[in-house]
Amino acid sequence: MTPKVIVSYDDTPNDQDAVVLGRRFREAGAEVSLAYVRHSRATDRDEELREERDAHELLEHGARLLGDPDAERHVVLNASTGDGLWALAEREGADIIVFGSDYHTARGTVSMLPSTKRLLDGGPAAVAIAPAGFRELGRGIGTIGVYPSPDDASAGDTARELAESWGAEISQDGSRVDLLVIGSRPEAAKGHVLLTALAEYAIDISGSPALVVQRERALQFAPVPVTA
């Protein structure tokens, strides 16, 4: 089954990082779409039409950055970005939601947005986070690290799937990696994510993109040709 990936996108530099990480998943065979959450509806009809048009133009720019101008786009109306994306993930059957780092994050480090933390607290899809400045690196993912969860092989199985698709290696010594794949804690319901404090610390200090996978649900990938 082709994984479905949704990138949270608002055209800020850090969300452009998220699109570039989404592009990496696309290279591994995933179907990638973009989502923008509007927090309120304008009371004036003309203003509402302008805001809706602006939202679609914003996502059009994101699709060009993704390298797929025909990528599916979602404009969601919800007071909470996290709740809006949660509902969208359930409706679309998404496998991964991709976020950029918080807006004030130093280049080369990872810091979670409140919406990211919302999805990591029992959310229905795996969560990926791009470090600030990821869009500027222009590199593929050659080495993958694994932070497993007890009695659940999902993180390791997902890492091996991605390694095969990208032609990457699994790190055996804990050295710096290009992606960290993390398992959910044992208390998580099957098919949902929960992050331990130690795993969150590992993300904070890694400086690498992170993918937190659902409990007992490994992701499967297959490489496809991608036009530059």
Distance between the termini: 24 Å
Class based on secondary structure composition and strand pairing: alpha/beta
Strand order of the largest sheet: 3-2-1-4-5-9-8-6-7
| Backbone shape | globular
Helix content: 25-40%
How can the largest sheet be summarized?
9 strands, mixed
Average per-residue pLDDT, rounded, comes to 92
Taken in chain order, the helices and strands follow as EHEHEHEHEHEHEEHE
Please give the number of β-strands. Answer: 9
Number of helices: 7
Radius of gyration based on Cα positions: 17 Å
**Beta fraction:** 15-25%
Low-confidence stretches: none
Short description:
The chain has 228 residues and is an alpha/beta fold. The chain is 36% helix and 18% strand. The protein has helices at 13-27, 45-66, 81-92, 114-119, 134-137, 154-166, 197-206; strands at 4-8, 31-38, 73-77, 96-99, 126-129, 143-147, 169-170, 179-182, 210-212.
Model description:
Helix content is 36%, strand content 18%. It is an alpha/beta fold and 228 residues long. Strands 3-2-1-4-5-9-8-6-7 form a nine-stranded mixed β-sheet, sandwiched between helices. Helix 6 links the parallel strand 6 and strand 7 (169-170).
